[in-house]
Amino acid sequence: MPKIKKSLFYQILSPYILIISIALIIVALYAAGIVRSVYIDKITADLKSISKLLERQINQKGLDDGADNIKLILNMFESENPIQYSYISQDGDVLYAVNIDKAKKNQKFAPEFKKAIEKVSGSSIRLDHQNNIKLLYLATQHIKDNNTQGIIRLAIPISEVDKLILGFCLKIFLFGLSVIAVSIFVSFLIAKRITLPIRLLIRYTQRITRGSFNLRAPKSDSKEITQLANAMGAMGKQLSENIERLTKLERVRKEFVANVSHELKTPITLITGFTETLLEGAIKEPKEALKFLNIIKTHAGRLNAIIEDLLILSKIEQGEDDKKIRFELAYIRPIIERAIATCRLKFEKKELIIEVFCDDDIILSVNPALIEQSVTNLLDNAIKYSPEQSVITIVVEELPDEVMISVQDQGCGIPVNDLARLFQRFYRVDKARSRDQGGTGLGLAIVKHIAHIHNGMINVESKVDEGSNFYMHLPKNNSTEMSEEGGS
Fold first, then answer.
1. 340 and 458 co-located in one domain
2. Are the CB atoms for 179 and 20 separated by under 8 Å?
3. Can you give the pLDDT at residue 485?
4. CATH code for the domain of 52
5. Would 228 be classed as within a structural domain?
6. Are 9 and 184 in contact (CB under 8 A)?
7. Among candidates 341, 332, 336, which has minimal Cα distance to 366?
8. Are strands 467-475 and 391-398 parallel, antiparallel or unpaired?
9. Using alpha carbons only, how large is the chain's radius of gyration in Å?
10. Separation of alpha carbons 156 and 83, rounded Å
11. Which segments in the chain show pLDDT lower than 70?
């Protein structure tokens, strides 16, 4: 059977009560011991005073004379029980007694007698077995003319002392009960004050588990609990951000899958349809067959372009996640020239003029292959939407904190409403025209991702019917050792 766990409130309250109770018991016992010792010392002092008076009386009147005076002296001590007096020889024999049976056995082994013989006086507390009462004994030497004549011994029952101590203990007990009651109440308040912020934290975490992340963490006067609350608040905020991020990623994933499915479905459907047409007999008609085969070739090329762009994007994202994208110091102009060479057939077909403004000594920490890919995509995009025999201008400008690469065309331009979504995957301003041009809708998304990997950014300025200018900003402070494998 599982052990029932106590709440923190009772775990705090119980030790408080236990400690206070133990402390009160210790104090009560200690105080009772002190009070008893004080009373015993007082009685002993009174007995010593009486013993001195008796010694003087005996020296003046003799041992047998003045019995009435001896009783008078004994009665000077206010007590419920009479003081017992006995005069004992140095051999231990009881020679004279008042308020006690004289025919007592020899007292030479009595503790107080032995002490008095050795040290002038001695006392002891012991049980009188004959009468079954506890007595305080005081024995002193009777000295006359500097000679010890005998032992004067006084005894008094200490039952009233025990009664006094009992009454005192009862008062302490009643006082202790009241202190415990007050302590329980105070401990209850303290425990409640300590556990209240913890209970609030529990409620706070329970609400977090139910999905309420935008709550403020409870405050406390305790430094440690405040730190815990702040940590839990930060955790709640981080969870909220992570969940929002995961939700956004899930939405992007679904949109991406839907877009990919849509983009792949069109060429596959056309390829399948025209292939079936050819198989059904159109292949026997050379003109129609050639026309259908060219359509199949076009859409197969488009399908291949989509797959290649998806692979590029996947490779870039995988490299970023695995921290294996390597940066190195590279001259920018050769990168621009390689991108131009890649697009040469396309711009020569439209008789476009490519103008490049880039100093030969501009050097930057980059991944050369990715920068070449991004410039190629921007140049390819400019070629697609530029009219024949127009000019495309590539400018590389070195600024104090960055290098800016711009690609400007004289094409149809982009409407203002489309600028914000231009770098989203599969987004097209003019979907029909973009497909006719062989666009995949991924080129600018790839450029944006490459700029992000370089801690940079991409933006565009465009006017309809006047052209567009794309700017890629690359900071100078990128490390040349941004991968687990190290730099070049």
1. yes
2. yes
3. 34
4. 3.30.450.20
5. yes
6. no
7. 332
8. unpaired
9. 55
10. 5
11. 1-13, 63-81, 101-104, 160, 208, 210-225, 228-229, 232-233, 236, 249, 252-253, 255-266, 299, 302, 306, 309, 313, 317-323, 430-440, 479-488
Cα–Cα distance, 65 to 301 (Å, whole number): 148
The verdict on 313 and 368 lying in the same domain is no
Compute φ and ψ for 460, nearest 5 degrees: -140, 145
> 479 is in which domain, residue-wise?
325-488
Tell me: do 39 and 157 sit in the same domain.
yes
Specify whether 125 is located in the same domain as 257: no
- Is residue 458, in this structure, part of any structural domain at all? yes
Q: Is 110 helix (H, G, I), strand (E, B) or coil?
A: coil
Q: Tokens for 149, please give them.
A: 């004549």
What is d(CA 125, CA 116) in angstroms, rounded to the nearest whole number?
15
pTM above 0.70, yes or no: no
Do 338 and 428 share a domain, yes or no?
A: yes
Do 469 and 396 form a contact (C-beta atoms < 8 A)? no
Q: Return d(Cα 124, Cα 113) in angstroms, integer.
A: 9
Establish if 172 belongs to a structural domain: no
Please tell me the total number of residues recorded for the chain in this structure.
488
Q: Does residue 382 sit in the same domain as residue 249?
A: no
Instruction: Kindly report the CATH number assigned to the domain that includes residue 387.
Output: 3.30.565.10
CA dist list (Å): 149 to 47, 94, 302: 19, 13, 139
**Burial classification of residue 217, based on how many CB atoms lie within 10 Å of its CB (0-12 exposed, 13-18 middle, 19 or more buried):** buried
Report how many domains make up the chain.
Answer: 3
